[in-house]
Structure prediction request, 191 residues.
Amino acid sequence: MYLQQLSDLELFRLIEERDKAALETIFHRYYESLCRFGFTYTKELDIVEETVSDVFFQLWNSGKRIQEIRNPKPYLYVVVKNKLLASVSTASMERRLGPGEENRHISSPSIEQQIIDQEEKEIFGRKIEKILCQIPEKSRQVFEMSRLDGLKYKEISEILGISIKTVENHMAYALKIIRNLVIKRSNVNHT
Prediction:
């Protein structure tokens, strides 16, 4: 099949265009090696396999953000590493608290409260999306990779093929726009 002959970057472009066969190709190309890599962070097979699968699911749902990734292989490894580090630290916290202890102090919210909380999350999400839409594409992408994907500046630099200083500049610019928009909106709400 011709897809196996394509580069990772070419496959990422096809995934951006919603080509499932391209996603399957990149999945088969890296799944085993990403799982082996994941075992360096935890020896729990189910956690590693679930995390690696989640990374491919996240890739499928990345939309236009895929086009900014210049180095697909390091991107996949970094995202797997960050997700595993987060899940390992959560699991270790739960072990320290003991079985059932992590939920003992949390009371179950009522159905009404859950609906209210969900609506507030959706409203907040729409507000964030409006703000993010006002950030230039490249700065927004760096911001999302840092804040949403949890990548370090060095990792973003390697993935996008830009200098760390450029990553810092994009982040500073994105944060400046966000700060100005938040201040502007809070001033409007107080008047």
